[in-house]
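Notes taken during the Thursday session

The instructor put the following on the board and asked us to keep it in front of us for the whole hour. The protein is YhfH family protein. We were told not to look anything up and to reason only from what is written here. First, the residues (62 in total):
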Amino acid sequence: MTEINRLRDLTTFMIHCCYTCPKAYECTTEEQCLACWKAQHTGVEEKPDAETTEKLLKEYAL
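Then, after some discussion, the predicted structure tokens were revealed:
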């Protein structure tokens, strides 16, 4: 993963996960944020399955 992609993903997760987290002030490093996201099962390490994504998009369109 390139540095730009890593930073983009980090920013995206921070917006989605940290912005509404009542304990966001406890995470002071990137490593703490990653550990918190993994503990909350946010899908940090998971890559979306193309077939599943396609099915979901079709369901949303209906």
